[in-house]
Amino acid sequence: MSSLGNTIEDMAAFFGAVRPKIEDYFVQCHLACYYDDWALEHLNPSVTGNQTLTTKTLSVILEDVATLPLARSASDTSLPLTDGVNLAWASSLDQFRLTTVGPSLGEQTHLSYEDWENLCARFDALDAWLTVKKEGGCG
Predict the structure, then answer these.
(1) Is the residue at 134 inside a domain?
(2) Pairing state between β 110-111 and 79-80
(3) What is the mean pLDDT of residues 13-21?
(4) Residue at 3 is within a domain
(5) Where are the alpha helices (DSSP H) in the chain?
(6) Spatial contact of 136 and 39, defined as CB atoms under 8 Å apart
(7) Cα dist. 6→2, 10, 12, 22, 94 in Å?
(8) For residue 115, what are the domain limits?
(9) Which of 41, 71, 112, 118 is deepest in the core (most CB within 10 A)?
(10) What pLDDT, on a 0 to 100 scale, did the predictor assign at position 56?
(11) Residue 137 domain-assigned?
(12) What are the CA-CA distances from residue 47 to residues 35, 41, 50, 62, 83 (Å)?
């Protein structure tokens, strides 16, 4: 159990809930390294796109905002976990930070790509173990 009372399965669930979106963020950052200004212009939300959000109701806006990147993409950057994050993902990222990142890597406000790879390796191994355990194997 972590210091917050979450089981390892809870930590895996929080990790799984944000994994695809965090992977997208780091792919966007890596693209920005290779294509510089072109990638940044096309990967980050446009001003025009943001202006169309102002004509919608809040519930529709949050659905649209959830499809945007977790944070502004830039080359060679870490993912902010507290400030400057997509509003639609802020609560999920905060839960992930408190229940998964903190107990695994220590208290952090940003997640580097190296730390992300470390977490992926740990949770891939955990997922394999949980699968074996669930199927009645050794564990």
Answers:
(1) no
(2) antiparallel
(3) 93
(4) no
(5) 8-43, 47-53, 58-66, 90-96, 102-105, 113-134
(6) no
(7) 5, 6, 10, 21, 15
(8) 8-129
(9) 71
(10) 53
(11) no
(12) 20, 10, 5, 17, 20
